[in-house]
């Protein structure tokens, strides 16, 4: 089985916790690096590998506080890779969490929903 | 002298001003400082998030822009420096950035800003989605989404100005506001 990908959060980059064995996939916190391509390369490469041996069911959790527009493009790439895994016949469910007072994060979730065919649930967190 | 600077800043509700070279570390430090300030002021969480988001985009936009400018040593303007300014008025926070841009880029930037300012909320949403989906990332990951994102989160028209400097450069200023009410 693929080695898990775990990256500790910083004040500019999110926590990454992808563990196929526990079947837990989470991207959370803030994503505002100046060089988002550099940061996301490792994540996207990992997902490519995971796609070759994906679990029958993958539940992917996004719980972001902030992200910059340069990350938004990379997050779309990540979501498209998950969509591909879904299209290949695996079950994929994406949860997009946002704070109840954060209409911008809710709207961003809707933006992604509009661009993807993979199921993406918007989940409001009551704070 | 110092007192007049102080009074002037106070009069214009300026919280923060920086003039000089813009590095990635500087942008990070300003963001951290401003985040602490917003927390310390007990600003509403929703407003705080919006202001922080708009600051991130505005400051990183300047950083990316200056990073791609070629340095010309024989210039009388110090073209790699910028102005970064953050203020808090009774009804709005504002973020103002100013930096040199090449004259031949002025029309393109002006057109993009006009387009963004002519869009309503829904139009901004579709414009954002179409650029997100189709636009390609530049090497540094800037996606051409910055201004649209700033306009969406600000919820107000963007202010801008192009001030001719010399044959090569203009000084471009951008102002984004976030309502506090």
Written overview of the protein:
The complex is a heterodimer of chains A (about 130) and B (about 180). With about 130 residues, chain A is of the alpha/beta class. Chain A has one domain: STAS domain (Transcription Regulator spoIIAA), CATH 3.30.750.24. Chain A has helices at about 35-50, 70-85, 105-115; strands at about 5, 15-20, 25-30, 55-65, 90-100, 120-125. Chain A starts with a strand and ends with a strand. Chain B is of the alpha+beta class and about 180 residues long. Chain B has a single domain (about 1-180), classed as Histidine kinase-like ATPase, C-terminal domain (Heat Shock Protein 90, 2-Layer Sandwich). In chain B, about 50% of the residues lie in helices and about 25% in strands. Chain B has a 5-stranded antiparallel β-sheet with strand order 1-2-3-5-4. In chain B, a hairpin with a 3-residue loop joins strand 2 (about 80-90) and strand 3. In chain B, helix 3 packs antiparallel against helix 6 (about 145-155) and helix 5 runs antiparallel to helix 6 (about 145-155). The longest helix of chain B is centred in the N-terminal third of the chain and has 24 residues, at about 45-70. Classes of the chains: A alpha/beta (about 130), B alpha+beta (about 180).
Describe the protein's topology.
The complex is a heterodimer of chains A (127) and B (181).
Chain A: E1 5-7, E2 15-19, E3 24-31, H1 36-52, E4 57-67, H2 69-87, E5 91-99, H3 103-115, E6 120-125
Parallel strand pairs in A: 3-4, 4-5, 5-6
Antiparallel strand pairs in A: 1-2, 2-3
Chain B: H1 2-11, E1 14-21, H2 24-40, H3 45-68, E2 81-88, E3 92-102, H4 103-117, H5 121-134, H6 146-154, E4 159-164, E5 169-179
Antiparallel strand pairs in B: 1-2, 2-3, 3-5, 4-5
């Amino acid at each position: 089985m693929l080695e898990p990908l775990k990256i500790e959060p910083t004040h500019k980059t999110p926590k990454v916790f992808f563990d196929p064995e526990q079947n837990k996939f989470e991207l959370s916190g803030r994503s505002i690096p100046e060089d988002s391509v550099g940061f996301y390369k490792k994540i996207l490469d990992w997902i490519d590998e995971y796609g070759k041996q994906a679990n029958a069911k993958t539940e992917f959790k996004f719980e972001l506080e902030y992200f910059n527009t340069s990350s938004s493009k990379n997050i779309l790439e990540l979501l498209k890779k998950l969509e591909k895994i879904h299209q290949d016949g695996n079950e994929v469910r994406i949860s997009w969490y946002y704070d109840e007072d954060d209409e911008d994060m809710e709207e961003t979730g809707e933006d992604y929903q509009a661009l993807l065919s993979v199921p993406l649930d918007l989940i409001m967190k009551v704070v | 002298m110092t007192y007049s600077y102080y009074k002037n800043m106070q009069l214009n509700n300026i919280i923060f001003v920086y003039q000089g070279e813009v590095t990635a570390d500087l942008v990070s430090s300003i963001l951290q400082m401003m985040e602490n300030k917003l927390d310390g002021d007990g600003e509403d969480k929703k407003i705080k998030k919006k202001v922080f988001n708009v600051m991130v985009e505005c400051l990183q936009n300047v950083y990316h822009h200056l990073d791609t400018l070629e340095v010309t040593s024989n210039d009388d303007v110090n073209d790699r420096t910028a102005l970064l300014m953050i203020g808090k008025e009774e009804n709005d926070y504002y973020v103002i950035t100013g930096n040199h841009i090449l004259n031949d880029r002025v029309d393109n930037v002006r057109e993009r800003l006009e387009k963004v300012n002519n869009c309503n909320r829904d139009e901004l949403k579709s414009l954002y989605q179409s650029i997100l989906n189709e636009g390609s990332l530049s090497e540094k990951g800037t996606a051409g989404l910055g201004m649209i994102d700033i306009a969406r989160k600000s919820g107000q028209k963007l202010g801008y100005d192009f001030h001719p400097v010399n044959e090569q450069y203009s000084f471009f200023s951008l102002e984004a506001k976030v309502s506090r009410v």
